[in-house]
Amino acid sequence: MVEAEKPHISSGLEGVYIAESSICKVDGQNGRLYYRGYSIDVLSSNSNFAEVCYLLLNGKLPSSAEFSDFNRQLVEARDLPEGVVNIIKEMSKKSHPMDILRTAVSSLSAYDAETADQSPEANLRKSIRIISKMSSIVATIGRINAGGSYVAPDKSLSHEENFLYMLNAKKPDKRQVDIMRDMFIIHAEHSSNASTFGTMVAGSTLADIYSAITSGISVLKGPLHGGADEAALRMMKAIGSPDNTEAYIDSALAGKQKIMGFGHRVYKAYDPRAKIIKAYLESLQLDASAEVKTYTAIALRSEKMMVEKLSQSHGIWPNVDFFAGPVYVAAGIPPELFTPIFAASRSPGWCAHMLEYWKNNKLFRPLEVYTGQLDLQYVPIEKRQ
After folding, report:
1. Which of 113, 136, 143, 216 gives 20 to 30 Å between its CA and that of 9?
2. Topology (CATH level 3) of domain 228-330
3. 264 in catalytic set
4. From 190, 264, 271, 353, active-site residue
5. pLDDT tens string 229-247
6. Known catalytic membership, residue 41
7. 112 contact partners, CB below 8 Å, separation of at least 6
8. Which residue in 112, 229, 321, 353 is the catalytic one?
C-alpha cells in the first residue's frame, strides 16, 4: 500500500491567495501602498479620511456632489445611542479598550433597522454608519476612561476634528488634526491582513456586517497584529534618555529580543506609511513638549542604528507602528487608545472588503492534515487506568 503524499501546509496561510480584489495593492518588495490605484503618498498629501472612505467603498474618488452627500451621511451617523454610551460607562476602567470597542460595536446592530437587510445598498449604508460610529465610540472610550462624560458630536467639524473634539471636549489645533488625518488615512486599508481576513471569514457565512466587523476587531486585539505601536512606545519609555538608545538596542539584539516596530510580514523595504509618520517626527523636534522631543530623539536614533545593523543585511526596516507612538502622544492621544484608533481607521477597509467579497461570496472552508490515531477502542470509564 502506497502511503499518500502529505499535502503542503502553508503555515499562517503564507503565500496563499484567498480572493481577487481591486481595493488595495501592497508592493512589499518596493515599499509601495495603493488604495484603488492611488499611492498612499498622494492620498496623504491631498485627501482627507472621509474622501478616502468614499474611495475604498465605491472604487473611485467622488465628485463634489457625491462627496457632499457621503460626508452628510457620515456626519449624521456620528451620535451614539444612549445604550451604547452606557455600555462604555459600565465597562470603563474594568476592561481593555479593545474589549469595550468590540462590545460596543456589536451592540450597534440592535439600533440599526437594516441589520438583517443583506442587500448591497443596505450594506453600503450600514458601512457608512459603522465607520462614523466607530470613531465616536473610540473617542468616548477615551473620554470616559479619563473621567469625563459623553461629548455629543459637532456637525460642523471634519471627521478628524470631531474625533478629537469628542475625545477632549474642545476643538483641536491644526497640528493635531493633521496628525489624525494622516493616521486615519494610512491605517484605513492594507489588503488581506489578519483582521481583514477574520472579517471576511465571518462575513463569508453571510453573517451581518456588524458581526463581521466585530470579528475584525477581535482579531486586531492580538499583540501580533495590533498593539505594536503601544509596545514600541513602552520600549522608548524604558530607554528613557536618547543617550541610552544605542546601549539598549545593542543589549536587546544581543539577547535576541524583538525590537517592536521593526520588520513586517509583507514589506521587505521601508514601509511607505512609516515614511509619512517619520516626517511628523522630524518636524516635532522643533516645537513639541519635552516628552515628545525625548521620544522623537529616541525613535530617530533607534531607527538609524537598526537600519545600519539589519536593514540591508536582513531586510528589516521600520514599519508603521514604530513611529506612531510619539506622533500620537503629540496629538494628545493616550497609549491605550492606539489600537482602538487603528480599528476605527481600518473600518472602511474592512467594510470595503466585505462589500466586494459578497458580490461573489463563497464560504471559507480550508482543510487541515489530520495527524491523530483512528479506530481506537472505547474503554468504559470504570476500566480505564
Report:
1. 216
2. Cytochrome p450-Terp; domain 2 (1.10.230)
3. yes
4. 264
5. 888 899 999 999 999 999 9
6. no
7. 126, 129, 210
8. 321
